[in-house]
Design brief:
Its EC number is 2.1.1.34. It is an enzyme of class 2 (transferase). It catalyses: guanosine(18) in tRNA + S-adenosyl-L-methionine = 2'-O-methylguanosine(18) in tRNA + S-adenosyl-L-homocysteine + H(+). This is tRNA (guanosine(18)-2'-O)-methyltransferase. Helices cover 44% and strands 15% of the residues. By secondary structure, the protein is an alpha/beta fold. β2, α4 and β3 form a beta-alpha-beta unit. α2 runs antiparallel to α8 and α3 runs parallel beside α7. The two termini are 13 Å apart.
């Protein structure tokens, strides 16, 4: 349960423009779709995918680090890591099971001929969109456990796109379509309050000192 008094205290430190921006951005945030990247060796690709999630309103990015333990490239992400929630998993099985338990269908993005084209994809169901590397694609375990497959239509000689480019195209297309429907895609009121608190805290310098002072003056 969010401490409303504490939230108000922190937001009073922010400028009106900052608070207004938070609310406007949160109006367009969604967890109806979530993005998953699997064992991306070049971390700048994951950072770029996170940036696309932030720009187009996807609140959660899931990273499977079964083979490579690397950190987000903050220079490429350009601050997006402050606004997007990153969930990390040490195995494919753990990631897929967690997302299925949350009600997501597992969608593997692949360039295979019989996959569903982007414009034909059913956006009504909450979906976890999995991306693999350009060279190796997704692992066999994900392909076996997928509920569906999705591809970007291409008409050139090249058969695949860089993961960050593919993700940007797909995320922009699906979120734009989603916002033009009557599907309940927005964050819940509780989720919005949680993000307001988290974003306020991340925006205030010396937050630990300010937080300590507040709770000293307002014991629970």
């Amino acid at each position: 349960m969010i401490n409303i008094d504490y939230l108000n205290f922190l937001e009073n430190i922010l400028t009106e423009n900052r608070k207004s921006k938070f609310l406007k951005v949160l109006e367009n945030r969604t967890k109806h779709f979530t993005i998953v990247v699997e064992d991306i060796f070049q971390m700048h690709n994951t950072s770029a995918v996170m940036r696309s999630c932030e720009v187009f309103g996807i609140q959660e990015l899931n990273v499977i680090e079964q083979r490579y333990g690397k950190s987000i490239d903050k220079e490429i992400a350009m601050g997006a890591q402050k606004w997007v929630d990153i969930n990390t998993f040490d195995s494919i099985t753990n990631c897929v099971d967690t997302l299925k338990n949350k009600g997501y269908q597992i969608i593997a993005t692949t360039p295979h001929e019989n996959d569903c084209l982007l414009e034909d994809f059913d956006i009504t169901k909450p979906s976890a969109l999995f991306f693999g590397t350009e060279r190796d694609g997704l692992s066999e375990e994900i392909l076996q456990r997928a509920d569906g497959f999705l591809k970007i239509p291409m008409v050139g000689f090249t058969e695949s796109l860089n993961i960050s480019v593919s993700a940007a195209i797909i995320i922009q297309n699906l979120t734009n379509r989603l916002r033009n429907t009557d599907i309940e895609w927005q964050l819940s009121n509780d989720e919005i309050m949680e993000k307001r608190l988290a974003w306020a805290k991340s925006s205030i310098k010396d937050i630990k000192r300010i937080e300590a002072r507040y709770f000293e003056e307002n014991p629970r």
